[in-house]
Amino acid sequence: EDVFTWHLSEKTCTHVLNFAVGNYGLDQAILRLKREYPRYRTPVVVLGVVPSTIVRILSVWKHYNEYGNTLGFKPRFIMRRGRLDLIRNFIDEESKFLSYRQYLPEIQRYDPFYEMKFRKDMLCFPYVASIMADPGRNIPLLTLVAWDRWLERSNRQDAYPMPMGVIMKRNLKLRVQLFRENEEAKELMRGLAEELASYSSQQGFSPVFLWMPQKDDVLFVARHGEYYGEFVDYVRERMPVIDLTPELLGRRDLDGMYSDDSQYGGHLSAAGNAWAAELIYRRMEEEGILKQLPFGKGEAV
Questions:
Q1: Is-contact 5 16, C-beta < 8 A?
Q2: Contact criterion met (CB below 8 Å) for 53 and 185
Q3: Is the dihedral angle over the CA atoms 75, 35, 21, 244 positive or is it negative?
Q4: Which of 92, 200, 242, 292 could form a disulfide with 207, with the two C-beta atoms 3.0–4.6 Å apart?
């Protein structure tokens, strides 16, 4: 009962199906939509997307960006001559995982984070030179790891122990950079938005693009200005968009809108979900989308 889809079910008197998957990017969400929609046809599809999706859509092996996510192999799209081309998951069965090294050349070819981030962040001999290659990351991170391990020893149940602060700030910086400067990432984001619009037209449902910034995104926008507005406007020209950013910027209880397992606000809290459902319902009513729902018996995704 804590997720906004449950609240929408209550408000619309319909069965709102929830197909959300943690850490999925827009690319995987669209692939799953195409797989599930023929079995669960509905007049309205609400697709919730977070700004960090611009990072996720570039990944093939998430370990190259999210160190330690060694099971995170995935497909991805690339743009070829203005059209989406699917690069299928190289590790799509257990036998391949057990011999994953033979697939690394192709994985590294299509995952830009191997060169952009993974290799640069590796600490190797001579270690002083390696550390000083990026002192702004490595020195604070090593200091905090040492402090956390031998002196402070933060609660091991914490979702984000103290050293993760450095990592989360770098993650935010990365997605800001991709939205502002990386033409490959921006073109791919636009291509995926076009694919969602095209598929909705083919299947005859109304898409709603729900843009859900994390708390650190909202705080960044409040201090430094919008960094993803250009993309959101692009999507808005093709389908209804519900952007939570303006409403969140005006809330004094921002902390309460996000779950307390992370100071960076990766997930809405119970109160945040209830609030989001009310906002989504109101915006869908204003757009005339609710009229398409068979109240009391239908399903919305």
A1: yes
A2: no
A3: positive
A4: 200
